[in-house]
Amino acid sequence: MSKEVAKRGTQFQPNHSLDFAVERIDTSSSSTACCLFCVHEGHKVLSVGAGSSRKRKRTDKIKYFNALFQPHKYRNHHEGQHVASWEEYQKLSKEDKAKYFDGKKKLTETLHAFIDLSEDSVTYTINASIVKVIIGELFFRKGDDADSDNDDEEEDMDEQAIAKNATLLAKQKQHAMKLFVKLDGADIYTVKIKGLMRFDLALDHISIGLSFRQAALAIQHAKDRTKTTKLGGVNDLMVAQWV
Prior knowledge:
The protein is of the alpha+beta class and 243 residues long. The protein has helices at 3-10, 14-20, 36-41, 71-81, 83-90, 94-99, 128-138, 151-156, 159-177, 196-207, 212-226, 236-242, and strands at 22-26, 31-35, 64-66, 121-127, 180-182, 188-194. It has 2 domains: 3-108, no CATH class; 121-143 and 157-242, no CATH class. The chain has a 3-stranded antiparallel sheet. The longest helix is centred in the C-terminal third of the chain and has 19 residues, at 159-177. The radius of gyration is 27 Å and the shape is elongated. It starts with a helix and ends with a helix.
C-alpha cells in the first residue's frame, strides 16, 4: 500500500457519514466524528452487581472517533453498543439511511438523558460481617454509656420519651435490614435498590444536610413539579433505609 493511499485511509471520508451513521465535527485544531446512535439513542444497558463481572454500568457518554478514521473502529463500537440498531441500519437503502435520524430528538434534549427507562435498579453484594456488625449493630445501637456527669440528667429524662426513641430506633433497624438478602451457601448479602433516580436524589439531599424527612419532601416536590412519575412515592423511612 502506498503512503498516499495509507494517508487517505486515515482521513474522514464523506461516505463514512452514511455508511456508518457518524457525523463529522470540525474544531479549530482537529477533526472528529461522533456516533449518531449514541446521540439519539444512548448506549446499551448492562446489568451490574450479583452474577455480573461488571462493577459499573456502561458509560452514557457519546462516542467520538478521532483519526485514524477506519471502518473497523465504527463497526466495533456499533456491534458492542448498538447491536439491534446497527443491524437494522445496515439493511436500509442509502435513501432510507439518509432519513434514519430524521425526526429523532437528540438524547440530551429529552428526559431520557436523566432517566434510565430500560433499567431502574441496581444490585450490590456485601460481606456478611459488614451487614451484621457495622450496619446491624453499630448503626442502630443505643447511645454509649453516659459519663458520670450526665447520670443525673439521664435519670431525669422522661421514661416515655426514652421508650419512644427506642421504639423508633428498632423500627428503623427492622425496616433497613429488610434490604439485605442472604445468599444461600455464601457468606454474603445482596441489596437491590429500585428507583435509582429516587435513590440518588435521596443521598444527594442527605449529603447537603437535609434530614430524612426533608429529603423525602424535596423528592416529592420534584416529582410533583416535573411530573416525573418514575420518582414514585417516598417517605422518611425509605430514605433512612437507603442511607
